[in-house]
Amino acid sequence: MHLPRLNFTILCLMALLLRLGMLIYGEWQDAHMQVKYTDIDYKVFSDAARFVIQGESPYKRATYRYTPLLAFLLTPNIYIHKSFGKFLFVFADIVVGVLIYRILRLRGLQDQKAVNYSAIWLLNPVVSNISTRGNAESLLGAAVLLTLYLVLVKKIIAASILYGISVHLKVYPIIYAISLLVLLDDEDYRGLRRKGKEKELDRDSLKYWTGKVVRFVNPTRIKFGLISGGVFFLLNGIMYYLYSQEFLNETYLYHVTRKDHRHNFSLWFYYIYLTFDISKSSIMALLAFLPQISIVTLLGIVFGNDIFFACFVQTFAFVIYNKVCTSQYFMWYICLFPLIIQSSTIKFFYKGLFMLFAWIGGQALWLYQAYNLEFLGENTFFNIWLASIVFFMANVWILTEFVQNHVYEKCFDLGKIRKIWEVEEEDMSNGQSSNNGL
What we know:
One of its GO terms (molecular function) is GPI mannosyltransferase activity. By secondary structure, the chain is mainly α.
């Protein structure tokens, strides 16, 4: 018995209807229930947009910690409709799904599998809930995936511009710089062959490593770095001109020393709680970046040529080692997850299912303790920290499993996209034809 094939267009329509239904329900819940559906951050965005329209600083709205560019984008919330931003985030959700599908097809994945993997994002209730509640993470996810797609199709100038914008919107995509630079080499990405003598040099010789360094600084990498960096600093310069030091403090510097002692899955949760009123704890906040950045950089160097897996594991590690970790951060790597499934040897039954249970169970344990704190008024800070440790350990195990069970596949070979899954599909088709012949 064969299940009906799901067309990608139908999948997108289903995803859109799911989100529209959640938007309608959200409006009802906001109007009739004490607990609101709309995220508090969305109200912050809207208030900041109102200040922008009035010619004032978006930072007059307390807790607005984002680039003014986001407030500019959401000004239609004020003069068109209050839910404009939610529709924008829903649109970004669909764009992410389309990009997932396009990337998988470009790498040779059979159409129905590409549709099925795209559904992991498009029909994901967690993803739909976050965007329809008014969280902007899908906007950044779309920018990151479009950057990677443009790199894949060798639109370097467009990719560089969009990457600069992405890092300006939220600084975390800077972690992809190392893996992108590793990818943009002469031989694989540009298709330029090296001379045979260079390949035969002794790896321990100074000449060999000098040549490696010289070859690393190639025109493509220089172009990508200059354009993306130029766009990033241009946008920052404009925002600094408009809002001076307040822009830097709220958009970037705040997040370096940020202390969030509630709603925080991080391993650093309890330390932040105990030292919340101690100014010297800012030094520890900076030190918290060291293991995080070290692991993220190493993963980028090792897996850079397999760019989608590199970005996924970099993001996963960045989130779990971050000193602040909320549910919205999971969106950063969930949008990359469908792109790496086909290259994993993990079977859904039973290891994959157990990994999923560990990820969800760790959150459930934490949320139970957080509920007791927030709604029952119980002092469960220590228990929340224990739950954070469990969640952290579960995530480290999951990350290790992904790395150990990944089939490393370079994205490019001699300047061309490697259709790595096309051969697998051909082999399967040939096998089925042989069986039918029997």
